[in-house]
Write a structure and sequence with these properties.
mainly alpha; 4 domains; elongated; 10 helices; two-stranded antiparallel ribbon
């Protein structure tokens, strides 16, 4: 079967790259074949058996059973298996982890374009030059930061830390004072009412005594006239 044999390509559906056919050999063994492109064969990790005849590439015919036996799981599963194996190697050998860490430090140098490298070097030089030119200012700023660090305890002294508890105590005292004031007002009203009642009683008693005195005087006058 060649790639230019249109009849056989149409018979086995090779144009759709899904054609399958079986052949019985002299020993009555049935072998099933399928059409694979070179890209498919490489993806499935199938060893290629084909040659070049002039300008025409001979097709690759491989037993489907052989292809299925070589393909174990999907590509994602195989990647996961490889990842697990690599992780196991890194777990066993601590030097591999150290090597990975060192490679991570040098990665920026290995993947940086020359123009970017020059830019990084220029930036580093500019930073160093700035530090050198402003050395005294930076030293003074460091001293100021040290003074601030020493005065940090003044920002929140123990007295200020007690303010929330004092505020709570003040609210409780205000509540108690309001209760006491209410009680005193009620007591004042009660005493005022008692005093008013007493005053009314005394006035009524005084009037009654005066009436009794007038009656006694009138009786005495009548007795004298008799």
């Amino acid at each position: 079967v060649t790639s230019t044999d249109i009849g056989i390509r149409a018979e086995f559906g090779l144009d759709e790259e899904e054609g399958k056919f079986s052949i019985t050999d002299a020993k009555q063994n049935v072998r099933t074949f399928g059409w694979l492109t070179e890209e498919q064969a490489m993806e499935k990790q199938v060893k290629l058996h084909g040659g070049v005849l002039g300008m025409l590439t001979m097709p690759v015919l491989t037993p489907v059973s052989a292809v299925m036996s070589q393909v174990q799981g999907t590509m994602e599963q195989r990647i996961e298996e490889v990842t697990k194996k690599v992780d196991a190697i890194f777990t066993r050998d601590k030097k591999m982890l150290e090597l990975e860490r060192h490679l991570g430090h040098t990665e920026v140098w290995s993947h940086t374009e020359p123009s970017q490298m020059v830019s990084l070097l220029c930036q580093d030089f500019a930073k160093r030059q700035y530090i050198a030119n402003h050395e005294q200012h930076l030293r003074d700023f460091t001293k100021v930061l040290a003074d601030v660090n020493r005065m940090e305890f003044c920002i929140n002294p123990p007295g200020l830390q007690e303010i929330p508890s004092c505020n709570e105590r003040l609210r409780r005292l205000e509540a108690r004072s309001a209760v006491a004031i209410g009680t005193a007002c009620r007591l004042h009203d009660t005493v005022a009412k008692v005093a008013e009642d007493y005053h009314k009683a005394m006035v009524g008693l005084n009037d009654q005594i005066l009436r009794w005195d007038a009656l006694l005087d009138s009786k005495d006058s009548k007795d004298k006239t008799k």
